[in-house]
Specification:
This is Cancer-related nucleoside-triphosphatase homolog. The chain is built from five helices and nine strands. It is α/β, with parallel strands linked by helices. A nine-stranded mixed β-sheet has the order 5-6-4-3-2-7-8-1-9. β2 and β3 form a beta hairpin. The two termini are about 15 Å apart.
């Protein structure tokens, strides 16, 4: 039986195009098929249609603040992206336990997203390096920025075990079929 060596299923695309929605859809389908899932996703926080920041949510349902509009914070944060202050400790409290025990190769690790805000956390960054290392046998569904980014993110993008899907408004409602077909080669569902 021919085995595909794709282990890293990578989504990218413009901000707000629907990568998290797609991630959650794939996650639900995998769960239905009896595949174990672990990890986290990030979500916009809006108030009266105004974006106030982002939360991180673990697949166990724990939620923390990843970033907030500076004007909503009592004190400035050490790290900023645009108008957002990044709450590294809160992010780590949710993200790091998700990645603490490396799942076996029958678990799909969900990392939505691996980006600039998340990489202000050094421990998260090191964990990501480990997850995508040549010796790792993790199966990963991850989101990365479309623009050229940190060297670790670029090495994920260019990894021989990675397959990249660019999510667009045109394909976002149908692309999960293609991704799940590729995943089937790993999980044999």
């Amino acid at each position: 039986m021919a085995h595909s060596n794709i282990k890293f299923f990578i989504l990218t695309g413009d901000p707000g195009v629907g990568k998290t929605t797609l991630t959650k859809k794939i996650l639900a389908i995998l769960s239905d098929k009896g595949i174990k899932v672990a990890g986290f996703y990030t979500e916009e926080v809006k108030n009266n249609r105004v974006r106030e920041g982002f939360d991180i949510i673990s697949l166990e349902g724990k939620r923390g603040r990843l970033a907030r509009d500076q004007s909503l914070l009592n004190e400035p944060t050490k790290f900023k992206v645009g108008k957002y202050g990044v709450l590294v400790e809160e992010f780590e409290q949710i993200a790091l336990p998700c990645l603490a025990k490396m799942p076996d190769n029958q678990t799909c690790l969900i990392l939505d997203e691996i980006g600039k805000m998340e990489f202000f956390s050094t421990s998260f960054k090191l964990k990501i390096k480990e997850i995508f290392s040549p010796t790792s046998n993790n199966v990963v569904l991850a989101t990365i920025p479309i623009r050229k980014s940190d060297a670790i993110i670029e090495s994920i993008r260019n990894n021989s075990k990675s397959k990249i899907w660019v999510v667009t408004r045109e394909n976002r409602n149908t692309i999960h079929d293609d991704i799940l077909n590729e995943m089937q080669k790993v999980f044999n569902y």
